[in-house]
Amino acid sequence: MKRFDLLRRAYRSLSQAKIRTLLTSLAIGVGAFTLALSLAAGEGARLYTEKLFKNNIDPNAVMIMKNKGAAQGGASAPLEEYKEEDSSVGTNTGRMALLSNTDIAKLRERSDIKNIVPMYNVNPKYVSFEGSNKKYTTGLTYYNNTIKTTTSAGSLPELGQNIADNEAILPEDFLATLGWNPEQAIGKKITITLNKEGARPSSEEITKAMLTGGEAALKKLMGGSTQDITVTVRAVSKKNKLSGVSVNNVVVSPGLLEKANAIVHGSGDANRGGVVYAIAIATGSPEEAKKSLEKAGFSVSTAKEQQSMIFQFVNILQMVVGGFAALALIASVFGIINTQYISVLERTGQIGLMKALGMRRRDVARLFRYEAAWIGFLGSVIGVGVALLAGWALNPVIAKALDLDDHQLLQFVPWQIAVMVAALVVIAVVAGFFPSRKASKLDPIEALRTE
Question: What would the pLDDT profile of 278-290 be if each residue is shown by its tens digit?
Answer without folding.
Answer: 888 888 888 888 8
